[in-house]
């Protein structure tokens, strides 16, 4: 009677012995496999042959997952990413020592038996029965390979991995049947090659090439006898025989392999003894997986590329399909990242803002006319520690970024101007533009709707000295809030949101901008990549191109490489060339004489716009040349830091403006990125000053309400006088050929100033 376990029933070893004993004695053989007795494996009760035949005939062998390499635009490596670190190599590229070592220790009769080694099975069963446990295994290399295929197919799904590795006789029979098929289809050499490429060697290394690199920093074809023996010994238990963490145990196991090689005649005993004396001489290459390891401070760009792959339908209909291709790996992804531009962005960020600062900065550079993302950087590096972050501040939530982007402040105003110009408004358009006013109401919106100022909200300018009337050129240069709110009231909200749509300007969460006049002031969160791409449309004379980060992809499957389709930029006309040229002329004025003077480039045409939001929680500069567009954001990702009385990059700021922190970052980033590059010119439009054609001379009259005094020249006295008489702000009155024209201007502005105590007088009088 067989011995029973204390819990009742036969032990797994005894069950296996019974199964194989009955099968062999019964002489039931099908295609080289002894079939089990009915019931022993949970197969069909009416006959084990029927149950065996129910197993699918063909083993699905998924392509082995491999590492993916991400390159910059020049073909230099940025990072390697993988679910499993593996590089598939052919048998000819694997050291003969390695081939012999793995066969000797794992399946010395590999070349003599079929899919199943019955002699080995019976020998193992006999030893295990004597020991009362599992002292010796009996799986052939072919069976081990099949098991590894099941594990590979399971991927990272823990449930599927458990099913693939469960120690049941039913799974064993499935493994045996497929082993027969594999032997027939592949042959011994291919099975050995596949096995050495699929098996796990510990330390995150899958396959012999990755293992050779991990432990010895060499290729599999160059492994020496002692090195090969060490790797072959690891396979049985990668954790137990890990040479990095237990050199003594690994050495003992290596010597066991060497002795076995001598016993089967692969090497002489003298060779084995000499190799046993050799030190391990590990030269470990640390695993470098994922975008966190990316060089050139390109980790965030690397993650952007990964997220593009996982979200773009060109790589698969569903995210699951795309993720499967990504995890499969074997990809070589050539990106648009320009090393010169990337280095310049990061150098500028490090120069102007410290990693430990309470605020952060993000910068993106985009090529007009192509949509290529040339650089993407942040002041806080990619990571999980203090003053590090996983969040890419440059992109939206769908691509791993901020949920809502960041309020853009006045950098939105050029979109309003472009919408107005497209509606036929002249670049000399004037609005009264007082320092403070209620939001105009009602304002026409799309679909026949209207916005009304039911909450009686006011809008005001940055400084009390900013009040009009202003024309567009000066209003843009000085970033006059009330001017652009009045412009929206004039043209309606629909042209503005339509322009935003054409420029693909959406919130960081992907939603469209709301139809509110406050969008003129950049009240909604938008990402730096979105802003840089939108401004690139001005640089390319009205053509908007969707951003792209991937130039090409090839995928290695086995020893074959094939190209994959990649997303292509889509370029559409967002505005007329005339409108774009006019906006370029306006924004050139911002840098030449407006709020952006600190950001300007001295060696080429450039244009841009500053932006600062409520309570100075965000500061922006977005600008461009004809061949490069860039956006810089500075602020707190949590939107909790008010940038007043603050040190940034070691420099004290009582108030942070778009010009004095983001502006210089943009200037230095662009300077380095464009060094040695062509310097094309804008097609500028002559935008006359508002008083040109009316006045050939300019008068200057000033009156102060505190003392009633006045001074004037060129006939501006009257304008200044009226300013003083009506409450005395500072009044500047322009005088033409007939000085009396200055009086109304001075009078009007003096009235405005009278309520404020300070006003710029009638420049258009």
- What is the overall pLDDT average? 81
How many helices?
Answer: 24
> Whole-number radius of gyration?
37 Å
* Terminal-residue CA separation: 118 Å
Return residue spans where pLDDT drops below 50 for at least 5 consecutive residues.
Answer: 1-52, 133-137, 692-765
Shape call: elongated
Instruction: Determine the structural class based on helices, strands and strand pairing.
Output: alpha+beta
Query: Beta-strand level of the residues, as a percent range?
Result: 5-15%
- The portion of residues assigned to helices is 25-40%
Biggest beta sheet summary:
5 strands, mixed
The beta-strand count equals 26
Strand order of the largest sheet: 4-3-5-17-18
Explain how this protein is built:
- The structure is a single chain.
- The protein is of the alpha+beta class and 765 residues long.
- The chain is built from 24 helices and 26 strands.
- The strands form ten sheets. It has a five-stranded mixed β-sheet, with helices on one face.
- β11 and β12 form a beta hairpin.
- α1 (12-26) packs antiparallel against α4 and α23 (717-725) runs parallel beside α24 (742-754).
- The protein is elongated, with a radius of gyration of 37 Å.
- Mean pLDDT is 81; it is low at 1-52, 133-137 and 692-765.
